[in-house]
Specification:
The structure holds 2 protein chains of 2 kinds. By secondary structure, chain A is of the alpha/beta class. Chain A has 10 helices and 14 strands. By secondary structure, chain B is mainly alpha-helical. Chain B has 5 helices and 3 strands; from the N terminus they run H-E-H-H-E-E-H-H. The longest helix of chain B has 26 residues, at 81-106. The chains are: A alpha/beta, B mainly alpha.
Chain lengths: 297, 132
């Protein structure tokens, strides 16, 4: 398996006039993995993705995709050949039928996977003889995804892929993403649906107001992130708990709530040196984590 | 055939949940020595989780000696004397745990209180036991 990251950015920034859409984004996406790119609407997800694909140019910083510079127009072609991308508003040839556009797209890609094409046509029940312009929003989305998935690219970049799909469609999309990853394709998808990211992703990047506020593996999140609720006999000294791993402390009277990304044992040990009435350690889900990061900033 | 059930809300990585459920199936006889488990990709698609999750669970279990991975043909359960001994111990411990929980319930504790209690106690224990 390729050990080089499939996506790498350094201080990637984009300003539109006086507004900063993406600010000093530094991240790295591992090969062979599924990465969820979470953020509220307008957080900078699409702007980031468009910069990665060379569709808009950064105002600062840079990055590479599969080793190719995203700022070099000549390399941008190589990127587009090896990366499949499905946008929120994918442009498709409206005058073609589903069968025609599939055949047309297939002719450009030597590695076309007919088995993937057939299985997705079947499970998504796409009407072969219907014109693309007559398709519903959900069907268009499915068609665009099929055209990307059947290419068997090295990297799939999906911008809000589940948008406009019904629950069954979302489930089928996630299954298809898992299948792609199983074949060695790295998947990078943006979403504001926490539940779907939580299920299939190996890693999660959270972007808020153009800044990367979290980049962690979901295994680490489940294993090390904890919320610790402590009730002391007397009001505690917050400063004593500012140790590595502690992300946030909320104190009110004798109660204290500590959010840690690791080192929970140390916090518990410190608390026990005082007169404590109770200590509760609870895991923290991606949802709470996301809301915490988004509220904090 | 095991009916897996992964819980994304639990404070436990999915690969660990998978490992536990396979171990559990070996302990309670749902799976026997030599039984085959689905391939990594098949199981990942079935559970709709990242293939890396299944791969990690399988390779850790192989490391423990409970699974044998054969190139191209999948994963096979290998219950040797050591894992049988572990299974017996777990059975015995389970009876103890049942008694304890019954005791706590009789003492008026609700199940969610017992659950939190276990989390907290186990968590304290984790500081002593070595981290992987």
């Amino acid at each position: 398996m390729n050990i080089l990251p499939v996506i790498e950015t350094h201080d990637l920034s984009k300003r539109f006039g006086n507004t900063s859409a993406v600010c000093n984004l530094t991240m790295s996406v591992a090969a062979g993995s599924i990465t969820g790119f979470l953020g509220l609407n307008g957080a900078g997800k699409t702007t980031t993705i468009k910069m990665l694909l060379g569709m808009i140019s950064p105002t600062g910083g840079g990055g590479t995709i599969l080793g190719y510079s995203i700022r070099d127009p000549a390399e941008s072609l190589a990127i587009r050949r090896r990366v499949a991308y499905v946008s929120e508003s994918q442009r498709l040839y409206d005058y073609m039928t589903v069968a025609q556009i599939v055949r047309f797209t297939k002719s450009f890609h030597s590695g076309w996977r007919s088995d993937v094409e057939e299985s997705l046509l079947r499970s998504w029940a796409l009407p072969l003889n219907q014109k693309v312009k007559a398709l519903s929003k959900g069907m268009r989305r499915k068609l665009a995804l099929l055209l990307a998935f059947a290419r068997k690219p090295e990297l799939l970049i999906l911008d809000e892929p589940s948008d406009g799909l019904d629950p069954v469609g979302v489930e089928q999309l996630l299954e298809a993403m898992v299948a792609q990853c199983g074949e060695g394709t790295a998947v990078f998808f943006s979403s504001h649906q926490i539940a779907e990211v939580e299920r299939v992703a190996d890693r999660v990047c959270i972007i808020h107001k153009g800044q990367l506020v979290m980049n962690a593996s979901l295994d680490d999140l489940r294993e090390s992130y904890r919320q610790i609720d402590i009730v002391f006999g007397a009001a505690p000294n917050e400063a004593e708990f500012q140790i590595p791993g502690v992300e946030r402390i909320q104190a009110q009277g004798c109660q204290m709530r500590v959010l840690v990304s690791g080192n929970a044992e140390q916090v518990v040990a410190r608390a026990r040196m005082h007169d404590v009435n109770s200590i509760e350690v609870a895991p923290i889900g991606l949802r709470e984590m996301f809301l915490d990061r988004v509220k904090e900033n | 055939m095991i009916f897996f059930k992964l819980n994304t809300a639990l404070g436990q990585p999915l690969y660990l949940q998978l490992m536990q459920q396979i171990r559990h199936a070996a302990e309670n006889g749902v799976m026997q020595d030599g039984d085959q488990l689905p391939g990594i990709r098949t199981l990942a698609e079935e559970l709709v989780v990242s293939p890396n999750t299944v791969a990690k669970a399988y390779s850790e279990l192989e490391h423990e000696g409970l699974l044998e991975l054969r190139q191209g043909s999948g994963a096979f359960l290998s219950i040797n004397r050591r894992s049988r001994a572990i299974a017996d111990r777990v059975q015995a411990a389970r009876r103890k745990a049942e008694c304890l929980v019954e005791d706590l319930r009789a003492g008026g504790l609700q199940d969610d209180q017992i659950w939190r209690l276990f989390e907290t106690v186990l968590f304290r224990g984790a500081e002593i036991s070595a981290k992987r």
